[in-house]
Structures are given as structure tokens and as C-alpha cells.
Design brief:
Largest sheet of chain A: 3 strands, antiparallel
CATH class of chain A: Mainly Alpha
Shape of chain A: globular
Distance between the termini of chain A: 29 Å
Number of domains of chain A: 1
Helix content of chain A: 55-70%
Oligomer: homodimer
CATH architecture of chain A: Orthogonal Bundle
DNA sequence: TTGATATATTCCCCATAAGGAATATAGTTT
DNA sequence: AAACTATATTCCTTATGGGGAATATATCAA
């Protein structure tokens, strides 16, 4: 029942919002922080939880820790992420998170990896 | 984020197994008990939890309490139950639960509502 | 080296929930 | 009525996890 693990990761609002944003591609913690409007500790802890359960992978890019969904996913995970994507499309909260993130990407300060014009160092692998 | 409620219901193994069996149709507690091989208290409590969160409905048929998935389901719930159905198909535990239940239906004692030839009193609404 | 930035970790408190044993309730049968 | 069946509820203990404040670590910049 690896399936349980998936649901346990999905059953907290903050984690769900994090995963939803990650469906759009890899993100560093500060972006998640900005997108969700939640304190750093909170995000960090949930990311730890998600990593511990194999729901995200992390990679350091300079000073930033970039998180993303796992490269290889079980069928259960794939199916549920697809389902989440579908459900999230209509939800106010999820849409607002996405909007905030998008805005940040467009006009964000150059200090932030995804906002800065991509360099070799900051360009992220899909 | 009604979606969270759904995941919170799905994130326990016993509840997940209960819901999976209910995907096959309404069941009384004793059948769930037999299908899962778990103590009555445990099942009863999880059913209470599920009912409290709108994931199941209950109806009394004589001495039996028959549980089923809600007649009207939100899109989120529908999508996730579909997903569960899909994921469960390959899982050993789920298949074994189903097998036990099926066996019980075929050769079960007449004391049990689903096994007994259906009467007006025991026939269940879809 | 010093300072700043990004993130993680620790400590503490609190809420929720899981599990079992024992007991209660409701309906059925005799 | 009494006995039995199916199910729920209460009481208790324990584990897990969530949240925040403060602190630690690591990397980068000057």
C-alpha cells in the first residue's frame, strides 16, 4: 500500500499547495514561500516531510534549494498528481497561489533564481 | 479546499480499504468486518469518521447498518474515487479484501443481509 | 573575514487521531 | 420478558504531526 503514503502527503493544505505549484515545474523555497504566503519554517518543514516520503526531490543551486516532483514516479503517484491537477483547476486557493507565483516570475527581483534571466547556473532541468 | 477533506479521509489504511470495498456497492458493518479482518471497534470508528466528513452515508436495515458512498458526490470526490479504483486494481491488499468479501457473499451464512437471498427488507438501493 | 541571504533544525506546546477494552444501545428472536 | 445480534460509544493511552520562536548551517558577496 504505497498508495497510503501518497495520500498522507496530500492530506495537509500546505503540502497540497506546495505540490500543486510544483506541478508547474521546479521551484526554490523562497518562491514557494512567496507563492503560498506562508512562513519559511512552515514551508521548510513540509518540504522535509515530502522529501522524507519520496514526494519531492531537492537539488542545490548555489544558495537556493530547488525542489521538484520526483523524476521517476510510481503509477499511484502519477495518477494522483493528475487527479490533483484536475481538481485544482477549479479551486480558488490553488489558482491564487499560481497567480502570485506567476506575478513573481514576471516582475521579481533579480536576486531570485527563477526570475533572473536564466544562466547556466540557474537554468533548471525539466 | 474541500479537496483536503477527501484526502484526510483517504490517508488511513483502514479507511481506504473500507472505501474501496464500498466502491463495489453498499455494505453492512459485519461484511466490512469480515472483508477487512479487523476488529469491530476499529471499523465502527472509521465509519464514524467517514460519515462525519461526508464520505459515506448510512441506512438502517433491521439490525444492520448499511453504509455506502454518498449518492451525490462533488467533482473532487468523484475524481478521487475513480483514481482510487484505478490504483487499487493492482494492489494485493485491495484484491485480497475483495476476494474475501466475494467468498463471503457466495457461501455466507443466511444471517447476513447481503448473503441471504434478497427480500423486500434486505434488498439494497443502489 | 565580515556580513548578508537562503534554508534547515531544534525545542516546545497543542490538537488530532489511532487503537484497544469495556460498556452501552437498538433491534430481533424466542 | 429475556437472550441474542449488530453496532456504537466511552475511556484511556499513545503516537504523529502541525505551528511558532529561536537558532544553526551553508553559501554568496564585499
Amino acid at each position: 500500500m504505497r498508495l497510503i503514503r501518497v495520500y498522507q502527503c496530500l492530506c495537509d493544505p500546505t503540502r497540497l499547495r506546495i505540490l500543486h505549484l510544483l506541478l508547474g515545474g521546479p521551484l526554490c523555497v523562497c518562491h514557494l514561500q512567496a507563492g503560498l504566503g506562508e512562513p519559511q519554517v512552515k514551508i521548510s518543514k513540509h518540504l522535509f516531510y515530502l522529501k522524507k516520503h519520496g514526494m519531492v526531490q531537492m537539488r542545490k543551486v548555489g544558495n537556493w534549494h530547488v525542489y521538484r516532483l520526483p523524476a521517476r514516479q510510481t503509477e499511484e503517484l502519477k495518477a494522483n498528481l493528475r487527479c490533483l491537477q484536475e481538481c485544482a483547476a477549479k479551486d480558488r486557493q490553488f489558482r491564487s497561489d499560481m497567480a502570485k507565483l506567476k506575478k513573481l516570475r514576471q516582475c521579481g527581483s533579480a536576486r531570485q533564481p527563477m526570475c533572473a534571466p536564466a544562466t547556466e547556473k540557474t537554468r533548471l532541468v525539466a
